[in-house]
């Protein structure tokens, strides 16, 4: 039995076919242009693959409320051509199979708790720090949606007193994404993030913002593990800095076994950058189980 997986990102669309054991059999990637240009290529790719269902982990915000008329659509994105686009409906009509749908970061969280370092846990968070910052949340064994879905990347964040940078988020200026995503690092320091590897002050400040947010997520959600992925986290030195700062910021208030071993509490993504596509695969498997499982 085969399932389709789509990791729908702002710059590229990764399509894959895999098995329920989490084996990726094949994959391709297409640039994200307008829906009119891009979507037929994706449909064409999946059409002859005999997939039982498709899972889509999508850039957001998206509508995940099944009671809503706009369920399955992309909402207020700055990518204007995609605003209001019914990505789920397009595949349902085109492929006539169940379509699972969630945010890209909830997808990555699902990948990690199905096949990665969050297996066996019921509450954890996955944070991507890349072109934007996104937070996927597993709470009580389920991906958290609530009113819409968590938007932890836009958590309002005070600038540190020695940081005059105005912040890059068009909605908030100073939110975590506005202060700590790749483009903010580049604008603040005037060079590509990966070319700043040898500037300790860059990563010390970056770690401050990440630790500030993570400490707040810990206080609100009580996660059993915190997983960090995305391009910026390829700077491995961030992990040491973030762990030390989180410990400081908690200030001795929480004393749990999990926090005693920071090296296995705040960890890098464990699936070699496949967490997103594997999570999408699992979204497809779950959609199939929900719609067709009972008919077996
Ligand atoms: P996206 O968020 O678009 O899916 P990525 O997770 O790869 O893509 O994030 C891209 C961002 O990560 C860019 O802002 C880039 O500057 C930054 N980045 C990529 N590689 C590195 C690296 N080795 N070190 C620091 N930053 C990096
Ligand atoms: Zn913001």
Q: What does this protein structure show overall?
A:
The chain is of the alpha/beta class. Helix content is 37%, strand content 19%. It contains ten helices and ten strands. Strands 3-2-1-4-5 form a five-stranded mixed sheet. Helix 1 packs parallel to helix 2 (87-95), helix 3 (104-115) crosses helix 10 (275-292) and helix 6 crosses helix 7 (237-250). The longest helix has 22 residues, at 200-221. The chain is globular, with a radius of gyration of 19 Å. The model has no long low-confidence stretch (mean pLDDT 96). Bound molecules: adenosine-5'-diphosphate and zinc ion. Zinc ion is lined by residues 154, 169, 171-172, 175, 177-178.
Give the topology:
Blueprint: E1 2-8, E2 12-19, E3 24-31, H1 35-47, E4 54-58, H2 87-95, E5 99-103, H3 104-115, E6 124-129, E7 133-139, E8 142-143, H4 176-180, H5 182-189, H6 200-221, E9 225-229, H7 237-250, H8 257-260, H9 262-265, E10 266-268, H10 275-292
Parallel strand pairs: 1-4, 4-5, 6-9, 9-10
Antiparallel strand pairs: 1-2, 2-3, 6-7, 7-8
Helix pairs in contact: 1-2, 3-10, 6-7
Bound molecules: adenosine-5'-diphosphate and zinc ion.
State the helicity in percent bands.
Answer: 25-40%
- Spatial arrangement of strands, main beta sheet: 3-2-1-4-5
Amino-to-carboxy terminus distance: 14 Å
Strands, count: 10
Global shape: globular
Sheet/helix structural class:
alpha/beta
Largest beta-sheet characterization: 5 strands, mixed
Low-confidence stretches: none
Rg (CA only): 19 Å
How much of the sequence lies in strands comes to: 15-25%
Hetero compounds: adenosine-5'-diphosphate, zinc ion
Mean pLDDT: 96
- Topology as H/E string? EEEHEHEHEEEHHHEHHHEH
């Amino acid at each position: 039995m085969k399932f389709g997986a789509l990791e729908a990102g702002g710059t590229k669309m990764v399509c894959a076919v895999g098995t329920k054991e989490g084996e990726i059999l094949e994959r391709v990637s297409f640039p994200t242009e307008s829906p009119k240009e891009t979507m037929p290529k994706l449909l064409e790719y999946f059409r002859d693959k005999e997939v039982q269902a498709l899972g889509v982990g999508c850039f957001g915000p998206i509508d995940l409320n099944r009671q809503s008329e706009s369920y399955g659509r992309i909402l207020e994105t700055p990518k204007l051509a995609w605003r209001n686009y019914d990505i789920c409906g397009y595949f349902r009509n085109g492929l006539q199979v169940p379509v699972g749908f969630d945010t890209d970061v909830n997808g990555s969280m699902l990948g990690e708790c199905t096949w990665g370092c969050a297996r066996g846990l019921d509450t954890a968070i996955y944070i991507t720090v890349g072109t934007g910052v996104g937070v996927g949340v597993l709470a009580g064994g389920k991906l958290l949606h609530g009113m819409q879905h968590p938007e932890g990347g836009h958590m309002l964040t005070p600038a540190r007193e020695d940081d005059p940078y105005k912040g890059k988020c068009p909605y908030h200026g100073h939110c975590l994404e506005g202060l700590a995503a790749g483009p903010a690092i580049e604008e603040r320091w005037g060079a590509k993030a990966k070319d700043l590897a040898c500037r300790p002050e860059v990563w010390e400040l970056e770690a401050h913002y990440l630790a500030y947010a993570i400490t707040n997520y810990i206080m609100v959600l009580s996660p059993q593990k915190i997983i960090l992925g995305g391009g910026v986290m390829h700077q491995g030195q961030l992990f040491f800095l973030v762990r030390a700062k989180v410990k400081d910021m908690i200030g001795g208030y929480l004393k749990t076994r999990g926090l005693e071993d920071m090296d296995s509490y705040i960890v890098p993504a464990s699936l070699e950058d496949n967490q997103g596509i594997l999570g999408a695969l699992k979204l497809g498997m779950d959609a199939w189980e929900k719609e067709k499982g009972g008919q077996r």
